[in-house]
């Protein structure tokens, strides 16, 4: 099996970003949730965020983002109000796709 891409195919750098939720995230997020969702919507419209949401067990928020590298993907999460407000206590970034 060849690992070569077809002529019209391209692989773009995409990352799986997890914002690990604080134990009291439900309470902490209330005052900042609207700002968080507005920012995510703007990033989706700009094509930076491909998908976003929470895991079913509410242990983390997930962002699938286009970014030049893992550090750029991490910076997208660092700029989110959820991190500043303590809703996210840790950011994890992994290549995706």
Description:
The chain has 97 residues and is of the alpha+beta class. 32% of the residues lie in helices and 30% in strands. It is built from four helices and four strands. A four-stranded antiparallel beta sheet has the order 2-3-1-4. A hairpin with a 5-residue loop joins strand 2 (49-54) and strand 3. It is elongated.
Question: Care to give the gist of this entry?
Answer:
About 30% of the residues lie in helices and about 30% in strands.
Q: Note the beta-strand portion.
A: 25-35%
The largest β sheet comes out as: 4 strands, antiparallel
Q: Going across the major beta sheet, what is the strand order?
A: 2-3-1-4
Separation of termini?
Answer: 18 Å
Structural class: alpha+beta
Number of helices: 4
Q: What sort of overall outline do the alpha carbons produce when their principal axes are compared? A: elongated
Considering DSSP H and I runs of 4 or more, what fraction of the residues is helical? 25-40%
Task: Quote the average pLDDT.
Answer: 94
